[in-house]
């Protein structure tokens, strides 16, 4: 009898060319699938909850797989973690119904971007060093515009194959903690490069290079060429993928 499982995992994306398997580049999916296949004794195919680009990190990501092979779920996380490199960790494995889907059943995803005003070699992989003072109030006014808008083509990577640029952003906010500017954003879906281009454009607002009105005009333009630069991947982390009561049983690391 075939069963479906969701695995929850986290990773430091610094050494990988994104999450999704692709030819001639090392990815998170490839590493997990290959080691998982060794553990279970046959090839496994993961269906990812989403994609993260090269250098982007995840505190919580999910993927599902189907199998009719019996395995010890109590030791699954511990055994697979002993096989995986140190920058990838399996957090839990969860039994779900066979029609539950890691991508399509996710209600929302949340990302965090960190800008550090202090150069710190220990934070280089997880933040963007920018010594400028930024206008937090103006950037948070831009956040209100994001929540009231739904077409984000202007922040999407060019030449993507998506059918729609509509995203429902439910939360977006900047805060400053000590020497760090921290941006949190939640939406039902995200376009490729969307968060990094939003942050880059908001930095232009924070530096007073463009106004809040300019930011709104960029949103309405649907033109990526009018938006700001794309900030480095190192500062971006997927924080949470949210599902609603679909886990029947769970085994944690």
How are the secondary structure elements laid out?
Layout: E1 3-11, H1 28-40, E2 47-48, E3 57-67, H2 76-83, E4 88-96, E5 108-116, E6 128-129, H3 136-147, E7 169-177, E8 180-187, H4 194-206, H5 212-221, E9 236-242, E10 249-252
Parallel strand pairs: 3-9, 5-6
Antiparallel strand pairs: 1-3, 1-4, 2-3, 4-10, 5-8, 5-9, 7-8
Helix pairs in contact: 3-4, 3-5
Assembly of the depicted chains: single chain
Tell me the number of helical segments per DSSP (H or I, 4 or more residues long): 5
Mean pLDDT: 95
How helix-rich are the residues, as a percent range?
A: 10-25%
How many domains?
Answer: 2
CATH class of the largest domain: Alpha Beta
State the CATH architecture of the largest domain: 2-Layer Sandwich
Number of strands: 10
Radius of gyration from the CA trace? Answer: 19 Å
Bulk shape:
globular
CATH topology of the largest domain: Alpha-Beta Plaits
Indicate the structural class.
alpha+beta
Summarize the structure.
The protein is of the alpha+beta class and 253 residues long. 22% of the residues lie in helices and 28% in strands. A hairpin with an 8-residue loop joins strand 2 (47-48) and strand 3 (57-67).
């Amino acid at each position: 009898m075939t069963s479906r499982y969701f695995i929850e995992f986290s990773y430091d994306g610094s050494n990988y060319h994104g999450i999704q398997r692709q030819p001639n580049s090392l990815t998170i999916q490839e590493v997990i699938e290959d080691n998982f296949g060794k553990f279970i004794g046959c090839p496994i195919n993961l269906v990812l909850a989403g994609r993260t680009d090269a250098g982007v990190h995840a505190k919580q990501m999910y993927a599902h797989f189907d199998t009719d092979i019996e395995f010890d779920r109590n030791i699954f996380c511990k055994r697979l973690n002993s096989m995986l490199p140190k920058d990838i960790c399996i957090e839990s494995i969860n039994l779900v119904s066979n029609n539950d889907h890691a991508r399509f059943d996710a209600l929302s995803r949340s990302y965090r971007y960190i800008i550090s005003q202090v150069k710190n070699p220990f934070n280089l992989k997880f933040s963007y060093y920018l010594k400028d003072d930024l206008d937090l109030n103006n950037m948070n006014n831009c956040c209100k515009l994001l929540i009231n808008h739904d077409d984000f083509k202007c922040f999407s990577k060019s030449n993507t194959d998506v059918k729609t640029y509509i995203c429902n952003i439910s939360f977006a906010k900047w805060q400053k903690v000590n020497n760090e500017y921290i941006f949190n954003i939640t939406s039902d879906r995200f376009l490729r490069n969307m968060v990094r281009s939003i942050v880059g454009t908001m930095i232009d607002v924070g530096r007073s290079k463009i106004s809040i009105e300019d930011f709104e005009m960029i949103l309405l333009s649907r033109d990526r060429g009018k938006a700001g630069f794309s900030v480095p991947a190192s500062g971006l982390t997927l924080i949470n993928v949210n599902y609603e009561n679909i886990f029947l049983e769970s085994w944690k690391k």
